[in-house]
Amino acid sequence: MCFYSAIFQNLGGKNMRSKLWLCFFAVLLMPLLLWAQSVGDILWQDNFNDEDSLARYEVGWFYYDESDNLMGAVVEQREGALYFKQGSFGILAAVVAGTNGVPALETDENDELTEDTKQDLISNDFSSPNQEGTFQVNFKNITSSWFIVPTRMLQDDDLTDSDPRETPSYLIFISPLQGTVGLAKSLEEQYAMLDPTLYDWLTDFAAFPFELDVFYWVKWYLYEGIYKVKIWSGELSDEPDAWLIEAEDPEPRVTGMFTYFGLLSDEPTATDEILIDNIVLREVKEGSAVRATGDVSPVSFRLRQNYPNPFNPSTEIVYTLARAGDVTLTIYNQAGRLIREFSYAQQQAGEHVVLWNGADAAGGAQSSGLYYARLSCDGLAQTIKMVLLR
Question: Which of 190, 202, 140, 196 is nearest to 165 (CA)?
């Protein structure tokens, strides 16, 4: 039943003039009842215009090479873009690179990450799982490959980068030769991101007529479970109004700060090439519904990243409930042992804060390390990583 029909049906025997006035006021108040999200400031960006051929500064990029059993792959800055060329990874050809927006990957004389860089990576606060991204891609030489842009990738247990062989993700899938675009989730299982037959596809494919050696703009929007993409050629200002493909995940995972770009082929000897350029990532901020009374209600169930992180001796864990419900916040160590549990019966909708002092229920101080906070309510659950440094 539409909003206006419901109004008329509920008026019963009142006269038509009353009905019309009420409908008029409903139209005026309607904008105050709509959920809205806003795209915020730039989180990180890279246009690859410096002299840093290894792509370690402005934004620090991770990529895989022979030490990861990926033989012959090339990732480097060339002519104001990030150049990718596939290498062989056993049964497939691949090249992947990604970042969480860390400003630099500085190394010491032994080619090890410096302590300042390690601390930046541990903080992992340069991105957001709710995001809008824009970039350019040029399919320079494609013989058999597909292109993926996985995001919301989880940080490794060593608190440095994210491993595309293991982490779950939300991803854009593009087959330039077939002219298809898809949206999918990859699950947390070995090599799931590298195998489209293991993807959880979120909607049907969309068609787009790609040409080789042409720069295309790609824009994605990912907020909670809402996921959509548009693609166009020409200038950034030529962006179309309509989204090319849209999907919604009914059970979204709203965690993970890493975004990667990958070119994959089931032909192990393929050496396909692409260029990536002008990447900008912005945060999509939490929306709200402003009602006639002026009250603000939360849009969704969400567990925020704790602050500070890393922390010592205590940290705040903030979460938002869309509606009242029984809430459990559990904290586990890296081995999966329960450290602390906070339970609240019929907690009201809105924002809530839990202060954890780095101790178990008996007051025993916990050692430095990685901990997980898991929020659950009415069948929904989200998890974040926290780092305690004594």
Answer: 190
Tokens matching residue 123: 């903080």
Measured CA to CA, the distance from residue 117 to residue 213 in angstroms comes to 36
**Parallel, antiparallel, or unpaired: how do β-strands 296-298 and 302-303 relate?**
unpaired
Task: State the CB neighbour count (10 A cutoff) for residue 352.
Answer: 17
Contact in structure between 126 and 286 (CB atoms under 8 Å): no
Distance CA 334, CA 371 (A): 6
In a domain, 11, yes or no: yes
Classify each residue of 44-66 as buried b or exposed e, where b means 16 or more C-beta atoms within 10 Å of its C-beta: bbbebeeebeebbebbbbbbbee
- Rounded Cα–Cα distance for residues 187 and 146 (Å): 19
Structural domain including 302 reads 296-388
pLDDT in tens, 277-314: 999 999 997 643 333 333 333 347 889 899 888 999 88
Residue type, 356: W
Q: What is the pLDDT of residues 201-254, one digit of tens each?
A: 999 999 999 999 999 999 999 999 999 999 999 999 999 999 999 999 988 999
Residue 120 lies in a domain: yes
What stretch of H or E contains 343? strand 338-347
- From residue 280, how far is each of 40, 42, 189, 203 by CA, in Å? 12, 7, 29, 25
Q: What is the CATH number of the domain that holds 382?
A: 2.60.40.4070
pLDDT of 315 above 60: yes
Higher pLDDT: 94 or 17? It is 94
Distance, CA of 150 to chain centre: 8
